[in-house]
Amino acid sequence: MTKLLITRARLFAAVDETVTDDGSVLIDGDRIAWVGPTGQLPPTASDGAELLDVDGKFVMPGMTESHVHLSYSNAHPSQLDRQPIPIAMLDAVDNARALLGFGFTSAISFGSAQGIDVPLRHAINSGRVPGPRLLASEKDLGSTGSNADSAAPESDGRKRIADGPWAARAAVREVAKAGADVVKIFLDGEALSAHAAPGVLSYTDEEVAAACDEAHRRNLRVACHARSAGAVKQAVRHGVDFIGHANFLDDEAVDMLAAARDRLFVGPGIAWEIQLLERGHEIGLGRNLMEARGYQHEIDETISAVKRLREVGVRILIGGDYGLSITPHGSNAKDLQYFVDLFEMSPAEALLCATRDGGLAFDPTGMLGTLEQETAADLVIIDGDPIDDIAVLQDADRMVGVMKAGVLHDDLLR
Ligand SMILES: [Zn+2]
Predict the structure, then answer these.
(1) Hey, which CATH number is domain 64-362, 3.40.50.360, 3.20.20.140, 3.40.1170.60, 2.20.28.10?
(2) Which of 82-91, 121-130, 168-177, 275-284 has the lowest mean pLDDT?
(3) Ligand 1 mean position to 24 CA, how many Å?
(4) Which of 120, 124, 230, 267 is most enclosed, with most CB atoms within 10 A?
(5) pTM above 0.90?
(6) CA of 72 to the centre of ligand 1 (A)
């Protein structure tokens, strides 16, 4: 196993908000062997190690994108799976490379057009293509007339429609058979949808209970689309692991999330609403129309929801719904900016959401998301200081290197 000593780093280990001015990280194979202030490095620990003097650059753990759609080809929201499968696969390879290049060493999938995630995960894990560690999902699971059930026949590559508990179980079994790690289920709707509004629950409790039970007995985790308090409560009641959006919360929903905070994670995925208002006109969805549909209200409610969840210690994850024309792949670090600007987090707190908390969501054993002895050697080297300016994470020129499992990449964005 090769050893590498990264030294003279401005070090953010993500155990807490501490930054160490002159820190070192010793990597042995795919694990971290030692981390701390350079002056405290044991005398013989780095014997035989290759030396990488980063001259004050910022070193932090790799980030987790908690709601990824690598199979979406930066297309119009209504055309996410109209690419022929071979082209979509090639696009997904590019998307995985860009995501890793921007420092995301892990990603949790929230839905995969054409089931592309599973072969992509195999290709990444076998070293054929560079990309993040991936919890792969499969096609979206939803009821007839749900937000997953678009009227366009072209959407067939993106959905499994199942009605009734046994059909929901069978659909989850198909997802498991396909080799996925995650089942994505739609619990309520979307303001843009002509037939499935937010707040209308598209599944009964019996159906959600069946889907979650079936997923968990097969060691799959469950990710859901849940915008309304009713949908969030349904998700908590039935053991959903990753709750996407959670925009509109009432007191009961906040209390239930607080009580379950050790077993679930919430990702607001706010890029969608923000970019829809800012750039929707590019895809024929003007700002006035989107405001009339309620998207500004949704942002305002999300700000208050996130504030309340932080107060009760619910873990909030970054990421969500990048991969559309208005939210292209690779711009995912904008989420940390939203966490700072919109949710009023300190940059260090936003970084902890992206690293420590995202790592725990991906791997509950604690191997990911922090730089500690024996954790995975997943880290990012940045020419800049995200504690001063969180936007440096969006700048390809500042991404000096990304390490995943001890392998350092410095050419993914060039
Ligand atoms: Zn999504």
Answers:
(1) 3.20.20.140
(2) 82-91
(3) 37
(4) 267
(5) yes
(6) 10
